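Hi U.,

Before I forget, here's the chain from the pilot set. I'm dumping it here mostly so it's searchable later in email.
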Amino acid sequence: MDTVNDSMIAAPLWRRLAALVYDVFPLIALWMIAALLYLLPMGEHYNPQHPHWAARLGLQSALFTVTAAYFVVSWTRVGATIGMRAWRLKLVGEDGAKPGTMQSLARFFLALVSFAIVGVGFWWALFDARKRTLHDRVCGTVMVRMR
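Structure:
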């Protein structure tokens, strides 16, 4: 178990957002693969100009699931996404351990809600003493910068 120690300091919001920009690139690749796997069986029956609502909803659900899996698996297995590793960030629980699956899943969904509401939950980090976003506070996680 990793512990929060002196080599870990709270990550500033700008660094978190930079890591999120980096994470868009592996996500694009995953979205392309997921879309291919979803659309391939439909073959010539899929009309990209006028897709059926069920086909569109299915594709959107597949892409959403891939996105959630990318973040949740990265946080629970390694404690960081590819973008977070590039910016030397790590997500830990308040006890210093890697977050669990349910904790990571809740954090993902709360971050989406926070982002949808003009990023209000992210701006919370500017005023929090430990630089935690609102979804970090609710889920009991801390984003730290590794030295």
